[in-house]
UniProtKB/TrEMBL annotation:
Its EC number is 1.11.2.4. Belongs to the cytochrome P450 family. GO terms for molecular function: heme binding; iron ion binding; monooxygenase activity; oxidoreductase activity, acting on paired donors, with incorporation or reduction of molecular oxygen; peroxidase activity. Heme binds at C360. This is Fatty-acid peroxygenase. The keyword Oxidoreductase applies.
Length: 423
């Protein structure tokens, strides 16, 4: 006997979701006593899922696909219309392998080294600077140099603005959304030109660079990607590396809010540092949800899901689900010290297997950069402003700017301290 799908009774729930984007799905699930309910979101009936068990069905590629799932405003800004996020089956697997391959362990180490050098250059001078904006600058320069994308000193601020707009402006308000659309057009044209130059032999990036890999990649049909597609995929690496700036702000926030953690980190406890980084990814908000579409009619947990129905998986709520996490609202890195993680427990960057599913291929890059900045911020003076989080902002950030400056008499972590040889 099938139960009726629980519903959020509103005619249209988009405004309710925008009023509390990270907690809307889990609070409705709690209210309705369910792991899945239906709501009208962006004018479409949508099944909202929360929790690790629901994540397992959401990532079942026999039941959900990605093509045509994401709303046009998301594809036009955040991730592009022709990118890996929109592919399924073989087309997805072959394109995804390119990302997994270029983001290998040696490449992650190399990006960390580039970033550390840029940080040293940017922090010198002794004045307090806003951490979020400073890391945009550091990460833009580092990621372009590392990826083999040419970027002159004059061009850097403009390109940095475009990369930041894609994740910081996409969903904040109507005016900023249109800035993000414009930025995507400009950034894709810039990088399509770079890809054309590589393919025509006018510019030769290092053979093992991301740019070279994207330019020569062949899709499942054996064809090279058209330059505008290759450009959008290159952006799929540049943009999220700069977006790690959001997590770097949360590293600084957590250091300021949890002095006991800061003391343990300052003592050089490396295992605790990894746990600290994982807890930041679990505890703090970033992407509220991911989206898919049902491939066929099926039943799940006694509920009927119709073919073609759009579905949202609640990432923030799954990371705070009391069935998976003890006292989920508490910031407690120690919970990661002795814990084996299931594929759907910790999902700030998606779940399931990275090669065969849409899970983010940048998790190692993200945790490595967060670890690097944990070291750097421990050696800097961090001046927090209003520490309350703005939960309506997408992505959420503390209400007050966090400032950072070099601490007098304290040497910044050099590459030797990070186990990477001389700077
Ligand atoms: C800043 C921190 C990051 C967060 C919060 C994040 C989050 C996510 C999420 C939620 C997804 C979608 C998962 C899904 O649809 O199931 C995703 C996909 C993706 N991410 Fe990340 N990500 C981050 C960093 C990175 C980095 C550093 C890179 C590359 C260097 C990257 C590249 C990608 C790509 C290419 C996809 C699409 C994967 C696919 O569709 O198969 N991300 N990320």
């Amino acid at each position: 006997m099938l139960a009726t799908m629980p519903r959020d009774g509103r005619l249209e729930s988009t405004l309710a979701m925008l009023a509390d984007p990270y907690r809307y799905i889990s609070s409705q699930c709690r209210r309705l006593g369910t792991e899945a309910f239906e709501a009208r979101i962006m004018l479409q009936p949508t099944i909202c899922f929360s929790g690790a068990q629901a994540a397992a069905v959401f990532y079942d590629t026999d039941r959900f696909r990605r093509a045509t799932a994401a709303p046009e405003p998301v594809r036009a800004t955040l991730f592009g219309k022709v990118t890996v996020q929109n592919l399924d089956a073989d087309a997805h697997r072959v394109r995804k392998a390119m990302f997994v391959d270029v983001l290998n362990a040696a490449a992650v180490q190399s990006l960390v080294q580039h970033t550390s050098r840029e940080w040293h250059a940017a922090l010198s001078g002794g004045t307090a600077q806003p951490l979020y904006e400073l890391t945009h600058c550091v990460l833009t320069r580092a990621v372009c140099r590392w990826a083999g994308v040419p970027l002159s000193r004059e061009e850097a601020p403009r390109r940095q603005g475009q990369l930041v707009a894609l994740f910081d402006d996409a969903a904040r308000n109507v005016a900023s959304h249109f800035r993000a659309r414009t930025a995507r057009g400009q950034a894709e044209r810039w990088l399509a030109g770079v890809i054309d130059n590589v393919r025509a032999g006018r510019y030769t990036p290092p053979a093992d660079s991301v740019l070279a890999a994207v330019a020569r990649h062949r899709d499942a049909d054996g064809q090279a990607m058209p330059s505008h597609v290759a450009a959008a995929e290159l952006l799929n690496v540049l943009r999220p590396v700069v977006a790690v700036s959001v997590y770097i702000v949360f590293v600084a926030h957590a250091l300021a809010m949890h002095p006991a953690c800061t003391r343990r980190l300052a003592d050089g406890d490396r295992r605790f540092k990894l746990a600290f980084v994982q807890e930041i990814r679990r505890h703090y908000p970033f992407f509220p949800a991911v989206v898919a579409r049902a491939t066929r009619d099926f039943e799940w947990n006694g509920l009927r899901i119709e073919r073609g129905r759009r579905a949202l998986l609640d990432l923030y709520g799954t990371n705070h689900d009391p069935r998976t996490w003890d006292m989920p609202e508490r910031f407690d890195p120690a919970r990661f010290l002795d814990r084996a993680l299931g594929p759907f427990d910790l999902v700030p960057q998606g779940g399931a297997d990275v090669r065969t599913h849409h899970r983010c291929p940048g998790e190692d890059v993200t945790t490595a950069l967060m670890s690097l900045f944990t070291d750097h911020l421990l050696r800097s003076e961090v001046i927090p402003g209003d520490t309350e989080l703005d939960w309506r902002r997408l992505p959420a950030l503390p209400r007050g700017r966090i400032l950072v400056k070099a601490r007098a008499g304290i040497r910044q972590a050099g590459l030797a301290d990070l186990g990477m040889g001389a700077a």
